[in-house]
Amino acid sequence: MFEASLYQKRRTQLKSRIKNGLVLILGNNEVAYNYPNNTYKFRQDSNFLYFFGLNLPEFAGLLDVDSGEEILFGNDVDIDDIIWMGAQPSVKELGEKVGIHSTRPFKELAEYVKKAIIAGRKIHFLPPYRYRNMQFLEDVLGLHHSMLKDYASLELVHAVISLRSIKDSYEIEEIRRACNIGYEMHIAAMRNCHAGRKEQEIAGILEGISASYGSMVSFPVILSQNGQTLHNHDHSQTLQKGRMMLTDAGAENDMNYCSDFTRTTPVDGVFDQRQKDIYNIVLACNEKAREISKPGVTYLSIHLNVCKILTEGLKALGLMKGNTDDAVAAGAHALFMPHGLGHMMGLDVHDMEDLDQIYVGYDEKTRPATQFGTASLRMGRELQEGFVVTDEPGCYFIPELIDRWKQQGLHKDFLNYDVIETYKNFGGIRIEDDLLITSDGCRLLGDKRLPVTPEEIEIAVNG
Ligand SMILES: [Mn+2]
Questions:
Q1: What's the domain count of the chain?
Q2: How far is the CA of 350 from the centre of ligand 1 (A)?
Q3: CA angle (145, 367, 378) in 5-degree steps
């Protein structure tokens, strides 16, 4: 964990952004896998990690905005636990590590909160996403779990987002480390991208590399020669010559900071001309976003700029036609890129998505689009120095979507369906890097950029 003073500073900032009442940040618990004592790998809640730092189950933090008091709730282990788990630091010692001097047993939390409610005090809590925390809040607050999201504190949500959106130097260093693990994962994927290899074998290698650094992948590995399926977690295929393997994967490091990269690699390392043409368009999109990302510019406008580069490229290949601006305004390009340019990244790979994308990625000035494609953009608002965002344009040929649009006669002025038909067996390409917004632009995160030009990729596959 970081120095205690950093957590103290974050909590002080949080309290200063809330008018009054109690702020309750619940940590996560163990979750049963197939029977109660066999649990999933523990993942702490990211908000708890950010303000309280402790990567252990069954803790909660309480901040009294009015008195300034900070209390850590958690249970000391007993001799039965020690026999199975070994000696553990006391809650008091754990509290000291993150700068909290007042600690209490977890079982006192419910009573503490109930008393505060009776005293008429406001309880600020974040929207829960784990069932045990929902159940706890339902019991303590007397609110049915289906209502908890509506009663979560918007004031707290905004305060947390305002802090976590700006990454400090310690966080940037952790993300850099996570990116370096991601680099190793993707280099391994490229080296193994040969005909006859099973997708699952390669996906397993990537998970192993990530685990060897003490944590795990930042989300389930996407690795498939059917890259046209955006979040393809099916790894049952055997790589075939002539196809491309799309790998979207990242690591979470031992401090729970994430990386998220995508590369698309031709099987055996050689692009055919058609693949190279589309690849270079997506690469130009990725580079464009990096070129124009800077504070004060909305990511929505960068997304739309990138869509224009995509449209221009597809027009040159005869897949699209007409005026580029009109085509993008109409949303015709979304046949090829039905997703957004990127998202925030930090302690979560989709940072703070539990707090609702509408607050993380948008604000009063920048509202989400409703048009197919752009509506999937998770991050649209104005960039600020210290933001970390992904830059992940793509181009896909989804046979079912092509059929549907063609049948409906959508965007006939901008789409050459006869040509598009011939790409139905193409698959998909996505290229993703992680960007830190700096004072006057942005820079890539990670010590080395993953191979990205067709030439670099061919070398990475074949050594
Ligand atoms: Mn991503």
A1: 2
A2: 7
A3: 65
CA distances from 371 to 174, 376, 378, 393 (A): 36, 9, 13, 17
End-of-domain residue from the set 148, 164, 180: 164
| Alpha carbon of 35 to ligand 1 centroid (Å) | 33
Query: For 161-190, what is each residue's pLDDT tens digit?
Result: 999 999 999 999 999 999 999 999 999 999
Give the model confidence (pLDDT) of 286-297 as tens digits. Answer: 999 999 999 999
The residue range of the domain holding 47 is 4-164
Hey, what's the torsion of the CAs at 421, 375, 226, 203, to 10 degrees?
170
Is beta strand 388-391 parallel, antiparallel or unpaired with respect to 433-437? antiparallel
**196 C-alpha vs ligand 1 centroid, how far in Å?**
28
pTM comes to: 0.96
Same domain, 311 and 324: yes
**Measured in angstroms, how far is the CA atom of residue 190 from the centroid of ligand 1?**
19
Question: Do 437 and 399 have their domain in common?
Answer: yes
Ligand 1 centre to CA of 432 (Å) is 7
CA of 232 to the centre of ligand 1 (A): 13
